[in-house]
Design brief:
Radius of gyration: 29 Å
Strand content: 5-15%
Shape: elongated
Number of strands: 8
Order of helices and strands: HHHEEEEEHEEEHHHHHHH
Structural class: alpha/beta
Largest sheet: 6 strands, mixed
Distance between the termini: 33 Å
Length: 359
């Protein structure tokens, strides 16, 4: 049986593989076109089939998320997803690519970043991290998209965060964070293209919450942890008319295969923890029942299950947990616990004090 560290390492490996496959699925142009149509205003009135050719080259995908300053990411061909600024370290985007959007009868070039986020509360506000990403994508254009004082050549950037497993109270939602002009004293002309340079989009997904939004339902189907590969493929083809090209079908199949491994790992971990917890509770209950009833058979059973596997092993932690359970059951007097557990009154009082101490 794997110990706790081995289980954690095994699960972490499977989780990284699943996260990687999610990014590979999201990076397919058919899926990116759906995302762009629903969240990027420059593409709102275009058909998905017309958006696909607007995506330049092959979207860059980071195989392994890398913290700022680290350099061990594996990447596929496309726009470099490494953003390195002197004295600021490096960050790696999940997916980053150029698009050409038709605006005012001309095509403008924009930079799109898509991030797959499994945890809705990672310890910080996601929008704040999104602001950091779009800021870096703006500043990193110096020397490539514009130079010196040619600030009008700055390309607009989007950072789109696909947040899976959002909490029930949020359910399915889409929010757009961007810059707007506000007149404190009117007079300055409003020229949106001069300041509308960055946007953060958050897409919250929860497949257990129903939605009337076609895009949301498509994304929940695509990234579902409940549906099988065949169910996903059938819905994507027949309901959403997404062509299961070789790449998309292959990456979707890989994602579901890794998901099965993750679920199997978590089930095994849950079974192991459940057995361990059940054994501990059974030990305490058996010992308490045997002493309380005063029957020799009950006492022997309680001692065999409780002491032989807990106290006799000399494990202080197990001994303390056993005594704590006995105190909670309130089936034995303090004197009986002192006698059976072979501890001093001071030790028993210390355990009681710890149980009643404020958290």
């Amino acid at each position: 049986m794997m110990n706790e560290l081995a289980r954690d390492l095994s699960y972490a490996k499977e989780k990284v593989q699943y996260d990687t496959q999610c990014k590979q699925v999201l990076s397919q142009k058919e899926i990116l076109a759906w995302i762009l149509q629903r969240t990027v205003k420059e593409f709102t009135n275009m058909a998905v089939s017309d958006i696909i050719p607007c995506i330049e080259g092959t979207p860059e995908v980071s195989s392994i998320p890398v913290n700022p300053g680290e350099t061990n990411a594996e990447k596929i061909s496309g726009m470099p997803n490494e953003d390195k600024v002197p004295d600021e370290g490096s960050i790696y985007y999940d997916i980053r690519f150029y698009v050409y959007a038709p605006v005012d009868r001309e095509k403008i070039r924009m930079i799109i970043n898509v991030e797959a986020q499994n945890s809705f509360y990672p310890g910080y506000d996601i929008v704040t991290r999104g602001i950091f990403y779009v800021s870096r994508m703006i500043s990193a254009q110096l020397g490539t998209e514009f130079s010196d004082s040619e600030y009008d050549n700055i390309k607009k950037v989007y950072s789109i965060w696909v947040c899976m497993h959002s909490p029930q109270k949020i359910g399915n939602a889409i929010s757009h964070y961007h810059m707007e002009k506000e007149d404190l004293l009117p007079g300055l002309p409003d020229i949106p293209k001069s300041y509308d340079k960055l946007s953060v989009i958050i897409i919250a997904l929860n497949e257990r919450v129903s939605s009337d939004d076609k895009f949301i339902n498509m994304m929940n189907t695509l990234l579902s942890t409940q549906k099988t590969y065949q169910e996903k493929r059938s819905a994507l083809e027949n309901t959403y008319h997404i062509s299961m090209s070789y790449n998309l079908g292959k990456e979707l199949g890989k994602m579901d295969h890794v998901l099965d491994d993750v679920i199997e790992q978590k089930l095994a971990e849950g079974l192991s923890q459940g057995l361990e917890r059940g054994l501990q509770e059974g030990q305490a209950k058996g010992l308490a029942q045997g002493l309380a009833e005063g029957r020799a058979e009950g006492l022997a059973k309680g001692l065999a299950e409780g002491l032989a596997e807990g106290l006799a092993e000399g494990q202080n932690k197990a001994k303390k947990e056993l005594i704590t359970n006995l105190l909670r059951l309130k089936s034995l007097s303090d004197q009986e616990i002192l006698k059976v557990a072979c501890i001093s009154p001071e030790e028993l009082q210390a355990i009681k004090d710890e149980m009643t101490a404020p958290v």
